[in-house]
């Protein structure tokens, strides 16, 4: 049995504005109805896999659980990293959890949550070929057979050419993203693979590798596991201990230093969707080189990617060539396709100017559901709110605003002061300034309502929270 470990804590800058810090790309439905994270969960589900261990952070703990539950994988175990420490401490913490539960002989497969692998049987076959090497004590990584001189990926240098069986090959070195000339030489040599960031090894072997090459991580990560605690359906690593761990990637901490490292070639369509031009390619350009998503009309366009995220926003491209255009309700990106790798720098520029759209997503996800602002002025705000079946907002009050709630779909259980009542479609309630109140969805379908706020201050920090079933302060 293989224990999948899914790394799910990306920052969401390279596919801005569709991916942002508040809602990074692994949770977005970029290529269909399911998110990249959900596609990863499905890929790592089957007879050969135990239930997955999902390593994520505070901001995404409920989102990770909800998206797993939405595709029928409610048994996914979510481990909350209390602070960002990169992939090294995350993988070590996962290994220590599995060592405590399964022992050092257990196999763990580490995978990012935001990659696309089109040929799942080929991927599973590659994992199967890596098992023998991993059981023999090797730290196995999976490299994608390159089909072009790509400069956007790191490379794995093999000690020899892969044979016809596609088995594990000893690794000579890790290579950073090359320039065009080096990438062409790598492709011609036939002994280089793209670094896919996917690993397979025995739990005891990877812990021993950390002890040999990154011993400074052992004590804080062990303490974080030992002082961790179950919280609802989540496991929280100990905050103080985990914060003492050095922030370092797994490649730098272990893989580039370890002796018994092998690579298994993976020959299939793969992408880390690290830029908009990668998504353009994955979406399948037409004969003119145009890929579109959403309500888009392309007229006399070529070699371009046009995307509208809003059902009621029609994006029209006229005479565009070599362009990326992404339209959302609160932000629009227009860029030359050759500069797609620079989008992350745009986010830095927006952050420096304190532009909210740099990090905030127009739909704010919460453990109970989500809300989005439809209209905002100095003394009023209109929101649309969705509450999951069984979802419960905190018992709270506001110092500066009153609210009107109008149910538009489903049933709401509303508490105002001491009074509790059920509201159905087209019914409404008024919450006076200062009144304690709460909303819940007792039904089996999502509940939607419109909230109208009025007052002198409408910020989200004007909340006095008295009770919360999700443990928020």
Which features would summarize this protein structure in a list?
five-stranded mixed β-barrel; 11 helices; alpha/beta; six-stranded antiparallel sheet; 473 residues; 3 domains; Jelly Rolls; Spore Coat Polysaccharide Biosynthesis Protein SpsA, Chain A
Secondary structure elements and pairings:
Blueprint: E1 2-7, H1 36-43, E2 53-57, H2 61-70, E3 77-81, H3 87-102, E4 107-112, E5 116-117, H4 120-135, E6 139-144, E7 155-158, E8 169-175, H5 180-189, E9 192-202, H6 203-213, H7 218-226, E10 229-231, E11 234-236, H8 239-243, H9 250-255, E12 261-266, E13 270-271, H10 276-283, E14 290-293, E15 296-299, E16 304-308, E17 315-318, E18 323-327, E19 332-336, H11 343-352, E20 363-366, E21 369-376, E22 380-387, E23 395-397, E24 401-409, E25 412-416, E26 419-423, E27 428-431, E28 437-440, E29 447-455, E30 464-467
Parallel strand pairs: 1-2, 1-4, 2-3, 3-11, 6-12, 14-16, 15-17, 16-18
Antiparallel strand pairs: 4-9, 5-13, 6-9, 7-8, 7-9, 8-12, 10-11, 18-19, 20-21, 21-22, 22-29, 23-30, 24-27, 24-29, 25-26, 25-28
Find the CATH topology of the largest domain. Answer: Spore Coat Polysaccharide Biosynthesis Protein SpsA, Chain A
Determine the structural class based on helices, strands and strand pairing.
alpha/beta
Can you identify the CATH class of the largest domain?
A: Alpha Beta
**Percentage of β-strand residues:** 25-35%
Number of helices: 11
Shape: globular
- Average pLDDT confidence is 95
Strands in their spatial order, largest beta sheet = 20-21-22-29-24-27
The CATH architecture name of the largest domain reads Alpha-Beta Complex
């Amino acid at each position: 049995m293989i224990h999948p470990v899914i790394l799910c804590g990306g920052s969401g800058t390279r596919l801005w504005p569709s991916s942002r810090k508040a809602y990074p790309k692994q949770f977005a439905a970029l290529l269909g109805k399911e998110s990249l994270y959900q596609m990863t969960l499905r890929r790592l589900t089957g007879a050969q896999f135990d239930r997955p261990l999902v390593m994520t952070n505070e901001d995404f703990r409920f989102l990770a659980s909800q998206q797993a539950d939405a595709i029928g994988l409610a048994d996914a175990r979510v481990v909350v990293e209390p602070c960002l420490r990169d992939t090294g401490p995350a993988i070590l913490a996962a290994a220590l959890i599995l060592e405590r539960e399964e022992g050092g002989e257990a196999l763990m497969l580490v995978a990012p949550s935001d990659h696309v692998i089109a040929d799942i049987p080929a991927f599973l076959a590659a994992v199967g070929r890596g098992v023998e090497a991993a059981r023999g004590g090797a730290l196995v990584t999976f490299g994608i057979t390159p089909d072009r001189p790509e400069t956007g990926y790191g490379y794995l240098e093999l000690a020899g050419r892969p044979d016809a069986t596609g088995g594990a090959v000893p690794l000579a070195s890790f290579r950073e993203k090359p320039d065009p000339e080096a990438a062409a030489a790598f492709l011609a040599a036939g002994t280089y693979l793209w670094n896919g960031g996917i690993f397979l090894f025995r739990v005891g072997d990877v812990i021993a590798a950390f002890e040999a090459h990154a011993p400074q991580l052992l004590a804080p990560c062990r303490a974080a596991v030992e002082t961790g605690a179950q919280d609802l359906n989540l496991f929280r690593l100990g905050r103080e201990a985990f914060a003492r761990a050095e922030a370092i990637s797994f490649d730098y901490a272990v893989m580039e230093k370890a002796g018994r490292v092998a690579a298994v070639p993976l020959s299939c369509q793969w992408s880390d969707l690290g830029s908009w031009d990668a998504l353009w390619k994955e979406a399948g350009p037409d004969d003119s080189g145009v890929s579109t998503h959403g309500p888009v009309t392309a007229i006399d366009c070529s070699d371009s990617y046009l995307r509208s995220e809003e059902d009621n926003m029609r994006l029209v491209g006229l005479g565009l060539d070599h362009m990326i255009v992404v339209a959302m309700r609160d932000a629009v990106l227009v860029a030359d396709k050759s500069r797609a790798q620079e989008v992350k720098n745009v986010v830095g520029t927006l952050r420096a100017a304190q532009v909210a759209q740099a990090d905030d997503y127009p739909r704010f996800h919460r453990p109970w559901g989500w809300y989005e602002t439809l209209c905002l002025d100095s003394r009023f705000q209109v929101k649309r709110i969705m509450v999951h079946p069984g979802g419960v907002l905190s018992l709270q009050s506001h110092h500066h605003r009153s609210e009107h709630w109008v149910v538009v779909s489903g049933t709401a259980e509303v508490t105002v002061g001491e009074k509790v009542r059920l509201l159905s479609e087209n019914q409404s309630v008024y919450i006076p300034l200062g009144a304690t109140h709460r909303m819940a969805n007792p039904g089996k379908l999502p509940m939607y309502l419109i909230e109208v706020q009025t007052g002198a201050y409408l910020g989200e920090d004007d909340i006095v929270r008295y009770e919360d079933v999700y443990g928020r302060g």
